[in-house]
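Handout, section B. The chain below has 114 residues.
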Amino acid sequence: MDIALVVVFVLAAFVGMEVISKVPATLHTPLMSGSNAISGITIVGALVVAGMVGTPWAKWLGFAALVLATTNVVGGFLVTDRMLQMFRKKDRPPPAAGGKAAATGEAAREPAQV
């Protein structure tokens, strides 16, 4: 293995860890959604590799890559959807009969007798 590839891999891992650690928590969801979309490229690559090779072993390896990449993309979008549901406002039940007093929990007051 070429030492230059190892150096590039180590530097990429270090830069990736530094970038991810500096991202605020509010940007994790959009960043993860974007990375899921980029992971779709993996599916295209797996399809190309599985279609170009002639040996059965390489075809099975390409198929396994396609299944794993699809699982990664679908799982990532499901997790992103679940996280986005956490930011949505919850539906409130409609106010009960009696108007504002019943909705706020206050008892209706009787008018004072003169």
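Note. Residues 48 and 62 are 8 Å apart (CA to CA). Compare this with the example in section A.
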